[in-house]
Amino acid sequence: MQQIRYTSGSPGQKEFATAVRRNVSAYFQERSISHKGDHRMVIKAMLMLVLYLVPFMLLLALPLTGWWALLCWVLMGVGMAGIGMSVMHDAVHGSASSKAWLNKLMGSSMWLLGSNVFTWKVQHNQNHHTHTNVDVVDQDIDPPAVLRFSEHAPLRPVHRFQHIHAFFFYGLLSITKVVFDFVMLTRFNRDGTTRRMGESPVGMMVRIAVAKAIYLAVIIGMPILFTALPWWQVLLGFFVMHFVCGLILGTVFQLAHVVEGAQQPLPDEHGVIHADWVVHEMMTTANFAPRNGLLNWYTGGLNFQIEHHLFPHICHVHYRAIAPIVERTAEAHGIRYNSKPTLWIALGSHVRRLQELGRPKLAPVVVQRS
To answer: How many domains does the chain have?
Structure first.
């Protein structure tokens, strides 16, 4: 894969990068507070775990059937998404706590989603955060063929209606990752990524297989063995749980990068993107619903994606406070701060962007994908 570098000859871009880091750092220094998580992070982690685990315990302990059982699976899906966004996400970035062991413990909540921390680190922390919205390299805009998130990707007839069917496929995000982790790890093993990160390819494959077997034995096997629910209702509930989780996660993720105004620059023939990396993140990322406190709490600050991409080492509980600092600094340096004021406006922008990406005018004349 081509090595990508970010460089800019514009003094203004470099000045902005320096200024925004300085101004945000000053916020924490002036208040003598840590940029890591605090008691709010602990309380949220506990509540999200309760939202996920208590309905499962009720399924096992009470003779629930029909709609009551289905409600439990739905609540578990909401809890799963909350754990992913509000607990695991910060922890794997190392921002949930100043203690490495606590970040590792909270990051292991990824197993509750049936997924794997290692593959997430490579795909999300390294590829997505380093090369946001760069075609092929950022796998978040390189979905299966039925969807087209990149204006540089091949255009197919099915993409004409993707603004309609996309949300169904978002619902499959977490359940497919239960299996797709193996595909991703195989790819990382082949290109040497696994060894470069100090892991054994075979050992990691075994660990993932064992963990997923335990996950499936618990989340599917226990309800079949210890409840009156027929096996097909358990499988249906399992699917519903993951569909709710995937729909939430997929929608939140795409509202940050596949919306109007979020650019998709390509490197030149030398692998260079002609922008300072900080400015590149501003160009490719968008916020949404910044005044919606409940949404901000539940999504783990992912509605403040600009702040998250500039400062992934800062816990999301601080994003709402530092967002005005970033916005003012961007305005002072002539850098666009792409923020959609409400969730509905952001959803509308995403749907329109999907429509644009499904039309021939955004299809490349020549597409080179490696």
So the answer is: 1
